[in-house]
User: Fold this.
Amino acid sequence: MAFSSTLLSLSLLLVLLCFFTSCNNAKPANKHHRFASHNYKDALTKSILFFEGQRSGKLPSNQRITWRRDSGLSDGSASHVDLVGGYYDAGDNVKFGFPMAFTTTMLSWSVIEFGGLMKGELGNAKDAIKWGTDYLLKATCHPGVLYVQVGDANKDHACWERPEDMDTPRAVYKIDKNTPGSDVAAETAAALAAASLVFRRSDPSYSKLLVRRAINVFMFADKYRGPYSNGLKPYVCPFYCSYSGFQDELLWGAAWLHKATKNPTYLKYIQINGQTLGADESDNTFGWDNKHVGARILLSKAFLVQKVQSLHDYKGHADTYICSLIPGTSFSQSKYTPGGLLFTMSDSNMQYVTSTSFLLLTYAKYLTSSHKVVTCGSTTITPKTLRNIAKKQVDYLLGDNPLKMSYMVGYGNRYPQRIHHRGSSLPSISAHPSKIQCSAGFASMKTQSSNPNILVGAIVGGPDANDRFPDDRSDYEQSEPATYMNSPLVGALAYLAHSFGQL
Assistant:
């Protein structure tokens, strides 16, 4: 008892000393800082750095992921076109134009909404966008033609080799009026239009080039309608088939051109074609294939913030999507794992987590600016609620989950060690200068050893519906990273880092 009294007296003395000395002079803590679950600034840096590991082409002198080297330096030459550059979409060595364009659109939207908060990372984010747009300009250099893929995916996937070593056919696939592809063309137009806004002040001539090209590509997309996976099915399916059709991309592309040009032509196009393009469909997923939800959120801003009354319905469409995400309401359609992760599908589920988190934060921004809320039946959903849901999803991704694992490579104390990625899993050029042949690489793929090269910032497909994650390199559904998983997260992390005083 005497021992306890002594401890109590010491504790009281320490409190009094603190109050009358340093604690008395301390500044009150920012109310946000106490609740910061993660180092969002560090995660933001790494989420952008990842794109450097996915680069194809001649790498610049300031390349930071140094285990990567030049690759694909003759891409396009067989078809007498320069298609050097761009991004490998995931863990293989093919350049798929459809997801690359969506990645570029979402990186641009991240900067448009939250670039002002990025501070030192803004330049890196813009570099990541320009690496994409430089390639998309090459892919659209011939009027009436869009080059949509470099590399035979089936033959590429039969090998496990570094991009620096690849010797599989670098076949070039294109769309034109005889083989239309409104989906990939309209997404490319969206990417170019969105990026034109990013560079409007810092590089006006480049911005004008981007928007001019966007206008032309969208005209082509709209005039020659059809999904690109019809004519190119043997080459693009099952990898990036257009499952949702092309109507969503036409609406999405028109929305971005409306935002980038302020030309009433695009507003009229949206007004006339919105319903036939599926503006009011009840789908609630947003990713590289289906853009309806993103178009609704984007167009809702024109009504909420810019008071374009003819787009009133898009606020309702956006609200319907939001209500579908809210657990416990009669409108809820979304599924969550026991640990609280939004679960849309088993293959690369994290792409829906990152894209949804971005849309929630962006819509919360629009609602706040216009002093509006979302009404789900008898339940009122405030912008704060949307931000809290988004934060919970990002926090799960970064480690607040049953496995206490970060699903971003290189972030936190525990993260995936055996990601499904050729360059990361094979010895680097500096460690193994001689060529690793196509089939020889499978020895590295099948090993249980950790990947020798850390692809910092890569977001993997993530856990299953029961929060389980095997960290198995052969399980591409859960262990493969992709550019379109990272791109929406860039904006979300910038917002969170700023909100918690880290930027």
About this structure: DSSP finds 20 helices and seven strands in the chain. Residues 1-33 have pLDDT under 50 and may be disordered. The two ends are 49 Å apart (CA to CA). The chain has one domain: 47-499.
